[in-house]
């Protein structure tokens, strides 16, 4: 097996690329979800305002970013 000092090869991705990938993936996922939603556009707009939708998305991205930053500062166990 490997030594204790070896690092995971997945750490080669930078934080910036990870955040960009998350935002792009989220936007694509949201678009697909809206296209295949069982409600019509008018019903969906009635349920959600655009501002509310954006605020929720921004909040989730901030939470994920904070979580990733906190994990980055934790010592390896």
TrEMBL record:
Keyword Membrane: yes
Record's keyword annotation contains Membrane: yes
Pfam families in alphabetical order: YtxH
The entry's keywords: Membrane, Transmembrane, Transmembrane helix
InterPro entries, alphabetized: Desiccation-related_membrane (IPR052928), YtxH (IPR024623)
Chain ranges passing through the membrane: 18-37
Highest taxon of the lineage: Bacteria
Listed PANTHER family: GENERAL STRESS PROTEIN (PTHR35792)
Protein name, entry field: YtxH-like protein
Source organism of the structure: Sporolactobacillus nakayamae
